[in-house]
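Box S1 | Example of a co-folding query
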Amino acid sequence: MASLSLQHINKTYPNGFQAVKDFNLEIEDKEFIIFVGPSGCGKSTTLRMIAGLEEISGGTLKIGDKVMNDVEPKDRDIAMVFQNYALYPHMTVYDNMAFGLKLRKVPKDQIDKAVREAARILDLEKLLDRKPKALSGGQRQRVAMGRAIVRNPKVFLMDEPLSNLDAKLRVQMRIEISKIHQRLGATIIYVTHDQTEAMTLGTRIVVMKDGVVQQVDTPQHLYEQPGNLFVAGFMGSPQMNFLDAQIAEKGGDLIAKVGEYDIVIPAAKAKVLKDGGYVGKTVVLGIRPEDIHDSQMFIEASPSVPMTSTVKVYELLGAEVFLYFDVNGTQVTARVDPRTNSKTGDTIKFAFDMEKSHFFDKETELTIC
Ligand code: ATP
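Box S1 (continued) | Returned holo structure for adenosine-5'-triphosphate
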């Protein structure tokens, strides 16, 4: 069993900087956990504390039932894959993968079995005799992964393992890592600042900011039900649009007033806003780009009077179009069907899918509904 438990983990560096604050997480066997967040939020520090490369200032780290705070890195049964996967240039792929086991004086036949099995999993069987300089970036990254796999560790820790690869290779390796996770049935903790990697790889995602965990959830929940303004803005690309809105009652409806527009709020959300005492107050209305529609059909079905604006920029990305325009002085992004008639300079009509809208408290920045 490779479950992990992080209880009230803190990290204060010798210069007094508190990089991780009261981090709590229970990780189950075989989970693929992602630590995500902006640069400097404490992702790597947390990972390095799990690996034993950084001292834990406070709290308890367990792997299985065993407290690991003071256990040497080599005795933690963990393998780490970094973004700088320095391979030994003078050694073949085979020897690069075998090296760690040789150091541990593992019998030769066992090493051979482990290396060939890892090579099979990683599709490196035909490259075992090559030297690193004769490999592509992605192949090198797979060898680095192979060095971790041959050790058959309980837990894999990966710190931005794909960040040195070009965009196309990143996508390929992302799929490879997903397959490896399924094949190995291992527990993986993976650090990235790339929210696409986080969304596609993770069984659960831990979003961090300034050393503090903001939310721990499945990718889908995180996207659909972000717990606060930061998570809502961080997960999703292009990011969620945010507009100041005043909540008011009008003709039996609850509305969000955005500048001159009165946007009707659906009943379930209206109830939460009313019960929360938000009538008459200004809140933040969040709407994802895909929930802004410029199609005639959607606009006609919307209970609100359509909004209008002038398209500042039109971007065709093949399967979708991004439109950029202002709503009450704030630039918003809409992700619409490529068959749209809206072009740069056009004055267009559009409406929000308010069933999918989010409301945030302007002061606490927590999600209201
Ligand atoms: P990135 O995505 O840029 O790698 P991160 O989320 O992994 O960022 P960490 O490397 O964990 O961030 O660093 C967290 C914070 O701790 C940063 O503000 C960093 O400057 C600080 N920090 C890291 N190492 C030390 C150190 N040895 N001494 C003091 N502060 C440090």
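Residues 138 and 169 are 6 Å apart (CA to CA). The pocket of adenosine-5'-triphosphate is lined by residues 13, 15, 17, 19, 37, 39-45, 193 (CB under 6 Å).
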